[in-house]
Design goal:
The chain has 284 residues and is an alpha/beta fold. It contains eight helices and nine strands.
Length: 284
């Protein structure tokens, strides 16, 4: 694994509570931003900063590198060892023999500090990027209806499933499910799968719904799990109402996160994209 990604993985694992599936924590929707640019972090960077902010009890939603803090006239206070790694992509110069217009990138990381650890900086004048600032009081049915209509997805009665070959969703009626929370949590899971279709975010590639390995299938299931949980958080739905909340279920995903950490981070990135696509049609 790339060293920069490994630093992110190490930070996540240090802040994950044993026996808890982290994506069921509503803190993951709390936007985290850079104090200098005002840009909201996305994907894995939002995930790791939001998780650390929650476990450390930070109240500020702003972060900055050591050099940015110094440039703003601030000082770190009791911040030793509390920098959080975030990743970015650095372009590499073209090499001899490469096709014209072909670009290469390498993953790098920098460390940022929460503004709760900084003195001497005023955050009142910062213009924050609205990305990721979705309302937390959305109506679950309104989200479902808007997405189905925009994407022209058909829904038929049956056991919960997304059928990629015909780009359709199957769902039981709401009165066939134990609770409304379970109904919408399940519905969001199937809609999350639908974002992988080639005419949307294309996670399935051109051979719709076929996965080359058990790992690829597990990764897609994880994308749907995380996406559904985040949509539930935004709609006031209990995200855990539809899961098999058994020790074996939790241990299975916990094992996957530890053994397939890179695949887990990729699934996190895809889940944030899937959520944005369902809500706003972004990222297609």
């Amino acid at each position: 694994m790339n060293k920069s990604m490994q630093k992110v993985v190490d930070t996540l694992q240090a802040h994950m509570e044993e026996g808890v599936l982290v994506w069921h924590n509503p803190c993951l929707l709390r936007s985290q931003s850079n104090i200098v640019t005002g840009n909201a972090y996305r994907g894995v960077n939002q995930f790791v900063t939001a998780m650390v902010a929650d476990t450390e009890g930070y109240q500020s939603a702003f972060w900055a590198t050591f050099n940015q803090i110094k440039a703003l006239g601030g000082n770190l206070v009791n911040a030793k060892g509390k920098g959080v790694p975030i990743i970015f992509y650095k372009s590499l110069p073209a090499t001899h023999g490469e096709e014209e217009g072909q670009k290469r990138f390498v993953i790098r990381n920098s460390h940022v500090f929460n503004l709760d650890l900084v003195s001497g900086i005023d955050t009142d004048s910062v213009n924050v990027d609205p990305v990721g600032q979705a309302s937390l009081d959305q109506d679950a049915q309104a989200v479902v209806t808007a997405y189905l209509e925009r994407e022209k997805l058909s829904v038929s009665h049956g056991s919960p499933a997304y059928v990629p070959a015909i780009d359709a969703v199957r769902m039981p009626s709401v009165n066939e499910v134990l609770t409304t929370d379970e109904y919408y949590s399940t519905y969001f899971h199937e809609l999350a799968h639908s974002t992988g279709h080639p005419r949307r975010l294309c996670r399935f590639g051109t051979d719709v719904g076929r996965f080359e390995s058990k790992e690829e299938y597990s990764k897609e299931e994880l994308v749907a799990e995380i996406t559904a949980a985040m949509l539930c958080h935004g709609c006031g739905v209990n995200s855990q109402s539809s899961i098999k909340n058994s020790a074996a279920y939790i241990q299975g995903w916990s094992r996957f996160i530890k053994q397939e950490a890179e695949a887990f981070l990729a699934a996190v990135n895809q889940a944030y994209k899937a959520r944005a696509f369902i809500l706003e049609g972004e990222g297609a």
